[in-house]
Structures are given as C-alpha cells and as structure tokens.
Amino acid sequence: MMKVIKRFYLALVLAFLYVPIVVLIVQSFNAGKSRAKWEGFSLRWYEELFRDPDIIKSLLITLSIALLAALFATIIGTLAAIGIHAMRKRPQSIMLTLNNIPMTMPDIVTGISLMLLFIFTQVERGFVTMLLAHITFDIPYVILSVMPKLQQMNKHTYEAALDLGATPGYALFHVILPEIVPGVVTGAMLAFTLSLDDFTISYFTTSPLVQNLSTLIYSQARKGIKPTMNALSALMFIALLILLLLVNKRTRDEE
Amino acid sequence: MTSFQVPGWGYVLMAVGFAAFIALLIAYIVVNRGFKRPVFASPYVLWIIVFTVIPCLLVAYFSFTDPAGNFTLDNFKSFWDANYNTRKGIDPALLQQYQDMGLSLDDLGLGRNPINIDTLVFSLWMAFLCTAICLLLGYPAAHIMADREFRLGPTLVVLFVVPMWMNFLLRTIALMSIMEDGGLINTVLNWLGFGPAKLLNTTAAVQVGMVYNFLPFMVFPIYNVLNKMDYQLSEAAMDLGCNKWKIFYKVTLPLSIPGVVSGITMVFMPAVTTFYISRLLGGGKVQLFGDLIEAKFLSTSLNEWNVGSALSLVMMVLILLSLGLLQKADPKGEGGGII
C-alpha cells in the first residue's frame, strides 16, 4: 500500500513538471487556434513559423551566436584549462575561484554588469555585445569539461616532449590536445547548448533590433501566446533536449 | 547598420588592449625564449578581468555615483524612499511655497513612498515560500527515489535533472499556456463544473511558476546525498530497535542536511532574482525585485542605471550571504550543487 502511495506521489510530481511541456508540444500540432479544443493534426503553425522573416532572422542570429561563442569559448577555455592545470597551487585556486564567479552569479547580475560595461564604454549593444557576453558565460563550462581530462593525463608526458626537443606549441598540439579531445568536444557542445538556451544574459546585452529566439519569444509572450510561439517553443524544447542528452551521455561515458 | 557609425571608444579600447596583450605575450616569449604552460591561461585571465571583474566593479561604481559621475549615496536612499530623487530635484523654494499653501508632500505625490524596500521584502517572502514548498514537495520525492529497493529511482532522477538545464523561459511559457483562460486547467475545471477561474496574473500563479521552475534544484541535491548515504547505518539503527520514523529522524534526516542546505540555496537564489516568471505569469501586476531591477535598466522612460546598480548590489550581497551559508553548512559540497 505504502509503495503504491509513494509511486503515485512521484508520478504526480513528475506530471506537474512535464504536463505543461507535453501539452505545449501537442498544441503546436493543433489545426485550430483554440488551446482547449483539438481540431485535428496539422503542421500549419510550423509552416507559418518558417514564413515569418522575424523568426528566421532570430534563428540565424541564435545559431551564429551559439556557433561563434562555442568556437571562441572552446579555444580560450581549453588553453586556459591547460594553463591553470600547470599552475602552482595558489594561483590555481585563485583562477578556479574566479572561474566559478560567472557560474554562481545569478544571470540577471551577470547580464546587468555586462550591460553596464557596454554602456560605460559606449559600445552600442547588438550582435557583437551579445556574442562577447555568451563567450563570457561559456568559458567556465568549457574549462570544467576539459579539466578532468587533464587530471587523468600522465603529468610527465608534456615535460618528456619538451626534453626531447619539442617546442611548447608543438607539444600542445601533438601531446596534450590528442589526449583531451573528448573533454574539448564535450565542452564545445555544452557551450553551444548553453548559448542556445540563454535568455536573461542575452536580454540585457542586446538591443531590441538584434533578437535571438529566446528574447523574441519573451517579447511576443508578454502580449499573450500565439500558436506559432507554441511551435517555436516546441522546436526549441526538442533541440535542447537532444543536445542535453548528448552532452550528458558524453560526460558519463568519459567517467 | 545601414549608415557608417563611429565606433564607441570601447571598441577602440578593446582593439588597443588586444594588440597590447599580443605584443606583451610575444615580448615575453622572446625574452624567455619559450614559455611555460601557465601562459596558455593568459587570454582567459585577460578575458576575466575585462568581462567579469571590471563589470562587477562597475556595478559598485554606478551604485555610488549620480548620472554625472559624482559620489553619492542617493541611490541607496531612494532604495528606502522611492520619491527621494524626484523630491530632491524640485526647487526648495517652490516646495516651501507649496507647503506654505498648506499642501503636504503626500498631496504633491512626493511623500515617502518606500516601494523598493517593499518589493524586496515581498520578493524575499515569495522566494522563502517557494523554497519551503519545494522542500516539502521535493524531499519526499528524493527520498522515494533514493530508496534502494526502488529500481526505477536512478532512471527517474534523470527526469528531474533535465529540466534543471532547460530554458526557464520556455518552461514558464508552457506553464502560462495551460493556465490561460482557455487553457487546459480551465477546460478541466469547466468540465468538472467549477466554472472558469482566473488563474493568470495573480500572486499564486507567480508562486506556482517559481515552484515549477525551481523544484528540480531541490530534489537533485537531496537525492544525491541520500543516494550516497551508507544504508548500513539505517540497518544498524533498525537492529538496535528503531522504528521507521525514528530511523528517519535520527539517522536519515541529519545526514541529509548538506543536500537540504544545498537545495535551499539553489532554489532560493534564482527565486530571489527572477523577473520573467513574474512578468509572464503575473502580467505586470506582481512585481518582484528582479522586475524592479529590469525596469530600472531597460524601461525606456527611466534608464536609472545608478539606482538599478544599487539594487543589483543589494542583490549581490544577498546572494553572497546565502552562498556563505551554503559553504558553512556543506563545506565539502556533498549536495553536489551544480552538476
């Protein structure tokens, strides 16, 4: 009896978490405009979605920001992880603490502080500022993905390469990188996903003229939810879910 | 983007700074004939300084200055008294004249109106309530899944982990769409004969939205701690004659405290800082501290960056306090806070 109650309770909590999402996805296939009545399966809203120039523009912005941010964050983050790993204890712990700041700070504070930086330096907010912000919050996660791989590596291979006459650059590409590639790829995927996922920081670091999908959805949803927004949200849900599961699987396999 | 614009000095500074950094790096390598590995971290050090440290200092700088850049505490004074700045901007002679006419500050709409502090208190209360509800709902869920006899437990936990990484905005919108007037909940209520109810744009809706978004952050750390717990301890307690409840109170609960504290901070922090949950589910009628900050920065009519920075600084202090509390209660990070 107790067992049944327990399972029922768990099912209830999970239903609370998942029913809204499932309903949203189902509604996006509803032929009618009504949220309550099922009027047959249709891809109508998805078609409208891809005919809306604003949404296409935001989609392109979102994807290019995510790709560029992941690229830069992966390069800077991987190099940083290698550097931090080789540091002495004290500077290392300082760097790791600094690395934690953007992850523990609430998004709204990160967003505002970056916004102030751009206001202060009179940089007009738009694509570039959003990209800079995304790189900033992506790097710590790349470092966290690469660090465990470095710790698994044999400490002396790099020094051995140098002793055998390799330059640091050569040793980086031919000794360290091949060993940590899985961590780097996971980091890049995580950075890409987080960048697609972000709303708050983008919201504060861009202008209304340059919107990514999240800020677009937000500005539309404030006026009430249109069926096309359901379709867009459903697509983003699925895309993010797949990416997250992939990243999670990679992290677990590596362990 | 159509017309050519002179770039702000920020871009110039960035370009010059970047060039200087490269030059320094090359000089360093040439002088030392090669370099050690920590040098690989230098681009990131530069990045952290420019995009994390300086922005944080700027928040502090803006909090203590007026728009002209002079030192002032007015931003914090207006925190206690919303009309402080307006009142200050009025010619004192004119004000005296009005007061001589028998009009009080309240009549002029300039009376002490402590909206900011009210909002903060309300926000803290909402966050507290959200944390309490999450704890009450989440602890049993975590406990059930961590039960060794429940085979599905580890699989089901994934269902709690996934939403932690999911876009909160999208999840809030999903919730919004089932709570709308013609949404699923109202349809069911109608069908049951309870008639349509106004669900959105209420404080309760915002509270439900917060619990909905942050519940996984409570469940996961508690599950983590309970799962790692040595089950032999509770077996020993049973052998020594404890009943189920006593085992829970004397063994399980005390040992799970790090997870609980971790969960509390992880729910409380985002709950204090949220702004879009209240905007979407409260329809602008329910204002939280995050909404206030957002308005100060982004509402086109205000642009009170200095006051907004002061509010953000208060928020940062709150966050640091709760992080300190977490550090103290769970020094080894057993709750496994951030995955």
Can you walk me through this structure?
- The complex is a heterodimer of chains A (255) and B (339).
- Chain A is mainly alpha-helical and 255 residues long.
- Chain A folds into 2 domains: 42 residues; 201 residues, MetI-like fold (Orthogonal Bundle), CATH 1.10.3720.10.
- Helices cover 80% and strands 0% of the residues of chain A.
- Chain A is built from 11 helices and no strands.
- In chain A, helix 3 packs parallel to helix 6, helix 3 runs antiparallel to helix 8 and helix 8 packs antiparallel against helix 11.
- With 339 residues, chain B is mainly α.
- Chain B folds into 2 domains: 55 residues, no CATH class; 215 residues, MetI-like (MetI-like fold, Orthogonal Bundle), CATH 1.10.3720.10.
- Chain B is built from 16 helices and no strands.
- The model of chain B has no long low-confidence stretch (mean pLDDT 83).
- Chains A and B meet through helix 1, helix 3, helix 4, helix 5 and helix 6 of A and helix 1, helix 2, helix 6, helix 7 and helix 8 of B.
- Give the CATH level 1 class of the largest domain in chain B: Mainly Alpha
Taking the alpha carbons of the first and last residues of chain A, their distance comes to 39 Å
CATH architecture of the largest domain in chain B: Orthogonal Bundle
Oligomer: heterodimer
Uncertain stretches of chain A: none
Count up the helices of chain B: 16
Q: CATH superfamily membership of the largest domain in chain B, which one? A: MetI-like
In the CATH hierarchy, the third-tier topology of the largest domain in chain A is known as: MetI-like fold
Sketch the topology of chain A as an H/E string, one letter per element. Answer: HHHHHHHHHHH
Round the mean pLDDT of chain B to the nearest integer and report it: 83
The secondary-structure class of chain B comes to mainly alpha
